[in-house]
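Input (structure):
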């Protein structure tokens, strides 16, 4: 139920086939519906025809000219200095051990993505202190910075949280950076890149332009629809240092030509006037979905202006039962439990994508309301993100 392989020979974006049943797919992160766009396919095919399916060299030695073209266009998109990585996780592992000085204090949001937690373990092994702070609690963060005796404090968090879809309080974070000159911020905006901000620069950079003591990481394989990850820095020297010395930049394989070619085609779309049209459609769909879920009294965690929605069910068993009944209705959603979400917060996750029409969200909301009440009865599930939610795994 949690690790499903689809049975389709060809994907159309709106549906997937599971156990012989064709289902509307509410489980993808291709928010703008670009991963099947003919222009991205053509870019990928052209790159393969010119360079083959893989260029078998570490970027420490040689890399394809597609890297240069993509970095230049991403820098226009993000208005910062860009380093391309094979994945967002490998971007974290390249940058953080290099730029976080030994002996720093590292504070990580309790709901930060697992890839950040993995990098934090390496930082702790390298001599930094690492501790969790309550989710999106800026008072707790300020207190932790004040209590720290380290000359360098790093805060690691998501921009758009991948499971609950809630958002980092960016203006408050920026204000804390102004207040504490030793505070550095590293934000994973994997689920914000592409659909949010001018030209899709992401949720973080749409609200707080890149600045000193700030790094933004993100994905090129979700809304952007291609493959790989990217890091955005305020200064060229740090970007060059990470590109040259970051461990996974040397000891991991390069992006494949198809990923680079597709990413170039996607970024061209983002830099054109077409992106604003796609973005407007998605934002309207997000607003519609929020209204549908709230009107039906569904226990939505973290209602926010993002394309990720999470309906809290409670237990993994009840969650699987709700997901099964939704499949019988013709809908696929992501059933999610611990450790992806905290204990007691199991539920179903759904997303907005431009592959699906508005009436599909109306139908899903109706089915959710019916199936959740069938499984849970009259039990009321309280959602209060102001309370401290236990982290997905033990605090670091």
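Output (sequence):
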């Amino acid at each position: 139920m949690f690790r499903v392989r689809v049975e389709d020979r060809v994907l159309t974006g709106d549906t997937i086939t599971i156990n012989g049943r064709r289902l509307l797919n509410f489980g993808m992160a291709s928010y703008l519906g670009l991963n099947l766009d003919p222009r991205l396919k053509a870019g990928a095919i052209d790159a393969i025809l010119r360079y083959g399916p893989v260029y078998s060299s570490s970027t420490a030695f040689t890399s394809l000219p597609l890297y240069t073209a993509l970095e230049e266009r991403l820098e226009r998109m993000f208005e910062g200095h860009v380093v391309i990585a094979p994945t967002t996780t490998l971007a974290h592992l390249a940058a953080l051990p290099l730029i976080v000085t030994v002996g720093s204090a590292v504070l990580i949001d309790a709901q930060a993505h697992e890839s950040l937690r993995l990098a934090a373990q390496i930082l702790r092994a390298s001599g930094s202190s690492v501790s969790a702070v309550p989710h999106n609690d800026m008072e707790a963060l300020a207190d932790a910075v004040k209590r720290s005796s380290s000359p360098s404090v790093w805060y690691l968090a998501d921009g758009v949280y991948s499971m609950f879809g809630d958002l980092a309080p960016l203006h408050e974070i920026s204000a804390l950076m102004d207040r504490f000159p030793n505070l550095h911020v590293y934000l994973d905006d994997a689920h914000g890149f592409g659909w949010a901000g001018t030209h899709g620069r992401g949720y973080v950079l749409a609200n707080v332009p890149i600045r000193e003591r700030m790094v933004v990481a993100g994905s090129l394989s979700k809304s952007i629809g291609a493959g790989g990850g990217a890091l955005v820095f305020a200064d060229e020297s740090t970007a060059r240092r990470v590109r040259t010395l970051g461990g996974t930049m040397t000891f991991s394989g390069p992006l494949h030509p198809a990923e680079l070619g597709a990413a170039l085609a996607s970024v061209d779309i983002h830099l054109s006037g077409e992106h604003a049209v796609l973005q407007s459609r998605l934002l309207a769909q997000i607003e519609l979905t929020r209204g549908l879920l709230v009107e039906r009294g569904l226990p939505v965690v973290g209602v926010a202006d993002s394309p990720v929605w999470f309906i809290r069910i409670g237990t993994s068993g009840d969650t699987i039962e709700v997901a099964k009944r939704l499949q019988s209705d013709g809908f696929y959603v992501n059933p999610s439990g611990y450790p992806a979400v905290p204990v007691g917060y199991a539920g179903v996750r759904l997303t907005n994508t431009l592959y699906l029409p508005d009436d599909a969200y109306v139908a899903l909301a109706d089915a959710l309301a019916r199936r959740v009440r069938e499984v849970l009865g009259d039990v009321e599930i309280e959602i209060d993100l102001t309370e401290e939610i236990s982290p997905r795994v033990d605090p670091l």
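Notes: The first helix runs from residue 38 to 51. The first strand starts at residue 15 and ends at 18.
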